[in-house]
Amino acid sequence: MSDYFNNIKEIKFEGRESDNPLSFKYYNENQIVLGKSMKEQLRFATCYWHTFTWPGLDPFGGQTLQRPWMDSGDPLKMAEVKLNAAFDFFTKIKTPYFCFHDRDIAPEGDNYLTTKKNLEYIIKIMEQKMKETGIQLLWGTANSFSHKRYMSGASTNPNPEVFAYIAAQVKDCMDATHYLGGQNYVLWGGREGYETILNTNMKKELDNLARFLELVVDYKNKIGFKGQILLEPKPHEPTKHQYDFDAASCLASLRKIGLEKEIKLNIEVNHATLSGHNF
């Protein structure tokens, strides 16, 4: 394990009268509620992206979070440092699950093959950490929005080379999720949309999206992945107009493609708020 959280003890349930800020006041993982423990009912998961990867910047300023795994150096070595710190955090806060984007856990390489090898290397270490701690993977997903190749979309991109790249990337990430016993696989396309209709062939892009979702389901069945495929709606940010605007638009798309029985939705509360809905 890492030494990043050495001075922090395991977070325990102490009740609402406790004045310890690093304690659970209401969450008692072993308390039975409606026939199940709180741990089973709530299924808390720590996400790699917000917790360990975000550098604390905004459009008006640069990085504000200084952490050992963000130091300059070998990216793969830094990924190991981050992984060790992450599992230290998971065990001390006692979250039974975690989730990740592929680029959260393993760095982008100079080319596709190097990137694939980086992911495979980290996954082996992650597998051992999961065995040691008993912490499970709730879901994995591919980052299809950060790299500049996805500036105009990933699966909806009119460039066939970009479509092929994201298809390969999702294949590798689903393989990793399947290998680690992940319970779900999430599809979130932050750039699956358009900035202006003036340079957009919407029919072509939506046809690309439909074909991509069919390929994802086909590959899931091919490798025997028993987890659930989840589509995550978001109306905008970073792209101005996104095709997966909200739950209704996603469901309509899935019904049109004929995949409504294969793919369910991963509803993120702030994404619902962005679309003007209550959660």
UniProtKB/TrEMBL annotation:
One Pfam family of this chain: AP_endonuc_2
Stated family: Belongs to the xylose isomerase family.
Protein name: xylose isomerase
Domain Xylose isomerase-like TIM barrel: 124-276
NCBIfam families: PRK05474.1 (NF003998)
Subcellular location: Cytoplasm
InterPro entries xref list: Xyl_isomerase-like_sf, Xyl_isomerase-like_TIM-brl, Xylose_isomerase
Keyword Isomerase appears in the UniProt entry: yes
EC number annotated for this UniProt entry: 5.3.1.5
UniProt catalytic activity: alpha-D-xylose = alpha-D-xylulofuranose
Organism whose genome encodes this protein: marine metagenome
Record's keyword annotation contains Disulfide bond: no
GO biological process, one term: D-xylose metabolic process
